[in-house]
């Protein structure tokens, strides 16, 4: 699966649920007052090795499979 930042992930989730991703606001960690890593990536290599189901990336989100598609 591809690496995506938090903003891209939020946009993909919104789109998969039929919500307008344009309503999301991009923020900056420096101005947020939060203490967390600026770059954080989930390593799915162990899951890929153990599971028989293919691990899909964010770009493969399917609103129909999620049951959230809107006409």
Structure characterization notes:
With 71 residues, the chain is mainly α. Helices cover 24% and strands 0% of the residues. The protein has helices at 6-16, 45-50. The model is unreliable at 66-71 (pLDDT under 50). The chain has 2 helices and no strands.
What is the compact description of this entry?
By secondary structure, the chain is mainly α. The protein has helices at 6-16, 45-50.
Features:
mainly alpha; disordered C terminus; 71 residues
Topology:
Layout: H1 6-16, H2 45-50
Q: Number of helix segments?
A: 2
Share of helical residues: 10-25%
In whole angstroms, how far apart are the ends? 29 Å
> How many runs of DSSP E, i.e. beta strands?
0
Radius of gyration: 15 Å
Could you describe the largest sheet, including whether it forms a barrel? none
Shape: flat
Beta-strand share of residues: under 5%
The computed structural class is mainly alpha
Uncertain stretches: 66-71
Topology as H/E string? Answer: HH
Mean pLDDT: 81
């Amino acid at each position: 699966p591809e690496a995506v930042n938090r903003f891209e992930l939020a946009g993909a989730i919104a789109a998969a649920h039929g919500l307008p991703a344009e309503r999301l606001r991009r923020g900056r960690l420096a101005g947020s007052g939060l203490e967390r890593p600026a770059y954080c990536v989930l390593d799915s290599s162990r899951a890929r090795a153990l599971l028989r189901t293919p691990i899909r990336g964010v770009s493969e989100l399917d609103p129909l499979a999620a049951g959230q598609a809107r006409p």
